[in-house]
Amino acid sequence: MAKTKEMTVVRGLDLARYMGRWYEIASFPTFFQPKDGRNTRATYNLNDDGTVHVLNETWSGGKRDYIEGTAYKADPNNDEAKFKVKFYLPPFLPIIPVVGNYWVLYLDEDYQYALIGEPTRKSLWILCRQTQMDDEIYNQLLERAKEEGYDVSKLRQTPQDDPPPESDAASTDNKGVWWFKSLLGK
């Protein structure tokens, strides 16, 4: 059996520049995201202690679902962009910490688009600062993902509205409801 090569990870990430909103252009479907999710995005804010506040949002059935967590360097003494992200489940009654890997596999020099993965190659995200991405850039990221050992046929493009919906519509919020629905197979 051929040994899978070690993934290339960005080094020297400027965390302050990485902060802000990123739109999900494509991802591997996961059990905890709604099948009809759209306008999926992540917003990162640097905390005073050097960790990152993570807000993941998606819209399903016209309602905003979201979950919040914390990201931190997997090894603070290493300059690789390998992070751990911790969420508490269920989101509406946070009790159980769930930690996942978040590895920045590629990032353009202007911090406008990124390829995110993790060591098992079961999760992959293509992120962009804009709601749409140029096809040429998208295809370059697909090639890079293939080089890192990902089966890009599993990628699902995420529908994004332009302009994107606002986040502050409290009457349509469902904190972590998508997680609960995922347990029921919806």
From TrEMBL:
Transmembrane segments: none
Gene3D superfamilies per the UniProt record, alphabetical: 2.40.128.20
One Gene Ontology cellular component: cytoplasm
PROSITE patterns, A to Z: LIPOCALIN
Residues in Lipocalin/cytosolic fatty-acid binding domain copies: 13-160
Region spans: Disordered: 151-174
Family per similarity comment: Belongs to the calycin superfamily. Lipocalin family.
Protein name, UniProt field: Temperature-induced lipocalin
